[in-house]
Amino acid sequence: KKTSAKKQMMACLFCRERKIGCCRPPEDAPDQTCNQCARRKRKCEYPTESRRGQHTR
């Protein structure tokens, strides 16, 4: 039986903009840079606010 890792809920800004998979390291890792940003030597930033919520019409 395979155990699957929990799916990350939020991609970093770079991965979201490029619409690519964002693989965030575990929370206890010293460096919180995702694989895509680390490969490109970019600063990995995550959105601070959730875009979910009530929609106004």
Features:
mainly alpha; CD2-Gal4; elongated; DNA-binding transcription factor activity, RNA polymerase II-specific; Zn(2)-C6 fungal-type domain-containing protein; Zn2-C6_fun-type_DNA-bd_sf
What does this structure look like?
The longest helix is centred in the first third of the chain and has 6 residues, at 13-18. It contains 2 helices and no strands. It has a domain at 10-46: CD2-Gal4. With 57 residues, it is an all-alpha fold.
Brief sketch in words of this structure:
The chain has 57 residues and is mainly α.
Strand content: under 5%
Structural class: mainly alpha
Largest sheet: none
Q: Which CATH first-tier class of one domain would you pick?
A: Few Secondary Structures
CATH-scheme architecture of one domain = Irregular
CA radius of gyration:
14 Å
Unreliable segments (pLDDT under 50, ≥5 consecutive)? none
Mean pLDDT reading: 82
- At CATH level 3, the topology of one domain is CD2-Gal4
Give the SSE order as H and E letters: HH
The number of helical segments is 2
Secondary structure: helix percent: 10-25%
Separation of termini? 47 Å
Total beta-strand segments = 0
Taken from the alpha-carbon principal axes, the silhouette is elongated
